[in-house]
Amino acid sequence: MDKKSVLIVEDEFIIANSIKMALQDMGYAVTAIVSSGRQAVELAQTGSPDVILMDILLKGRMDGIEAARMIREDYDIPIIFLTSHANESLLERAKLTEPFGYLLKPFQDKELQTNIEMALYRHDMENRLKELNRTLENRVKEETEISRQKDYLLIQQSKMASMGEMIVAIGHQWRQPLNAVALYVQDARDAFDSGELDKAYMSEMVEGTLRQVTFMSNTINDFTNFFRPSKKKTPFNINIAIKEVVNLVYDLFKKAGIEITFSCIYPEAVRKPCENQMKDICICEPGLIVEGFKNEFKQVILNILCNARDVVIGHKDMGFISEGEISVELSKLAGMVKIEIKDNGGGIPAEFIDKLFEPYFTTKGAKGTGIGLYMSKVIIESNMGGRIYAVNGEKGAVFTIELNRFNG
Ligand SMILES: Nc1ncnc2c1ncn2[C@@H]1O[C@H](COP(=O)(O)OP(=O)(O)OP(=O)(O)O)[C@@H](O)[C@H]1O
Ligand SMILES: [Mg+2]
Question: Is the CB of 348 under 6 A from ligand 1?
Fold first, then answer.
């Protein structure tokens, strides 16, 4: 094994030499003997000793404590102070440099050796601990990054699944207005052939067509950004966000025999006149504002509605109910909003109720991925600081989302 090396900083030549000899007898190598603080700092760098014995009172302007402070800042070398006076204020100053030992002159060789060995041991342990901490920190960082990536992938994967739902819904929403536009165009040709196409006829036709096209364009607009991850939290009107999702699936659910209702149950809420043919789901005002990721929030609502639809259809097919019902209720609590989505699909079997939000938990076999609710939990709880949970109600499941209200 290599000899451990010691730098001696001592301005009294005779003492320095006797320490040197004692050290050599004990099996250490002495890199140098220096007598000033400045030289000590230099030698700490060039000689890279394993340990430094530092006298406190030295020649020159820099004393041993100041030299120790400078060495400590730049190099990782344990220092043991040597002094003839146990002066209180000196001790206090010395403590600040976190020395590895403190020897009062005159000292025995054995004391010197013990101090050096302890210093080397403690230094080694401290370095190992530092290394361990560093490795641990890196591991934590790596693991956090992996789990962040995993969540991101899951969210994207789940968005792809919702994309299927949405394309079907948008396709359905478009069919009717598209037919209407086709009829207007056909009618225009017939009117022209029969000479009925006057100015009034023409403007009625243009208005009618534009109405249909606006509806189609709104349907698309509501979801244009849906697949783009929201970059930062922004305040948004939760009533509008919910309405946009309900609007999209309303017709399709109705066709499957399910009626969705959306109600605001806070005293000041007033229903706004409906702008389009979807009378049952026109919005109420004033809207409640929350802060977060609107697109992701809409995806959560879509997930819960589609889950409810699947269960309700199953329940209906088995003859337990004749009409499917899904209600979305928005209420206002102190500083918060609460959204309850209830269905009449018969509820969640008791053995599954604790598992719903786990990744990959599904009862739909190959038809489900089981990430819809897990992802919803990540969005609501980790990303938006809210809460999402499910219980069984009278006729079926009740999914509740609670979010802080924005008061900016
Ligand atoms: N309204 C509900 N009533 C009863 N059970 C429900 C309801 N919503 C969800 N579940 C149960 O929770 C499970 C997990 O739902 P989740 O949305 O995470 O996945 P999934 O719907 O099975 O699959 P995916 O959403 O990927 O298509 C469902 O398989 C279903 O068993
Ligand atoms: Mg689902």
Answer: yes
